[in-house]
Request: fold
Amino acid sequence: MFLGRVVGTVWATKKEDSLQGLKFQIVKKVDDKLRLKSDFAIAVDAVGAGAGELVLCASGSSARLTSTTHNKPVDTVIMAIVDQAEFTEE
Amino acid sequence: MFLGRVVGTVWATKKEDSLQGLKFQIVKKVDDKLRLKSDFAIAVDAVGAGAGELVLCASGSSARLTSTTHNKPVDTVIMAIVDQAEFTEE
Amino acid sequence: MFLGRVVGTVWATKKEDSLQGLKFQIVKKVDDKLRLKSDFAIAVDAVGAGAGELVLCASGSSARLTSTTHNKPVDTVIMAIVDQAEFTEE
Amino acid sequence: MFLGRVVGTVWATKKEDSLQGLKFQIVKKVDDKLRLKSDFAIAVDAVGAGAGELVLCASGSSARLTSTTHNKPVDTVIMAIVDQAEFTEE
Amino acid sequence: MFLGRVVGTVWATKKEDSLQGLKFQIVKKVDDKLRLKSDFAIAVDAVGAGAGELVLCASGSSARLTSTTHNKPVDTVIMAIVDQAEFTEE
Reply:
């Protein structure tokens, strides 16, 4: 999984039918100081994450294993909102 | 998913049978200012996206979960046309 | 999918049984001017592509969805020979 | 698989139900001298790895093939604790 | 698939049960002159490859499609030993 921060939202009216009602969040990856990197992904939100929140995202076929994304053409999902990311050893 | 812009089309006469009738679009990834990056992918179009449109693409096995791409040797699909991509926090 | 050019062949006598008879082609990725990049992959040929030809390759589990590669330990397949790749917008 | 070292832990209260009870470890990849790289992933721990340990991680759908991660939205798993990584040829 | 050379071995006593008996080889990727790159992966050996040998590796779910790796948390497998990699066109 990767650690990221929600930095925006994507709206799309014309889309594959099974995607109706899903929320597409823009998630920027963060480094080990939790600073935003330039790299970002568009992820379906399965846990109600809001703008600015630190989140955990799963990619690939695993992104379909939430009740929100089951059997849909989705390759990235926000599956947890992070309370704390503690780097204990550098 | 990744955000990109349709910048061209690929034609192929000789191909795996199951790919007949599919449209292969060239999609360049965009950065957080929606500027084109050099990196591109070839994606099957499942939503009727035209040249220049901003689109959302799913990769991997998830790319096969549209009615257009089901069970076909396709690893990237355009599954939505983007109305707006709003970056709310940088 | 990615766009590439066939630049060579790999021969392997000792291999997993299910791979007997497959042709392993070396495919270099190309940029948006169709110039060769240094990055390459080894792909099973499902369409009879020859040296120098511009091809379309599918990766991941989708690479197994051709009659040539079904159920085999193959993660990249040449599934189309490209007639033309037209970049309409830069 | 990739070789990495456990350098921290992620806590998340609000998450997909199936993730309850899983331990999310921060794993930094290592180079061929076993030095930490900047790149890291969040992996579910299937073998009881502690901070500082050198571990082996599987990614993608294979990350779900442990009893700990079966059918869960998890794309990286720690599936072995490394006793020794011997580079015999450079 | 990627082309690489076996440059070492990883030993792990504490691991997921299904991994008992598998051999974990360190495989460095090679460039188009067959020179070692710094990037490496840990691959399960399905064909009896020895140190220094040039090998072909499959990644992702395809890595589980050998009799050695079936249904196991393995994402990279050595599925062929390369006799010759001939670059015919540059």
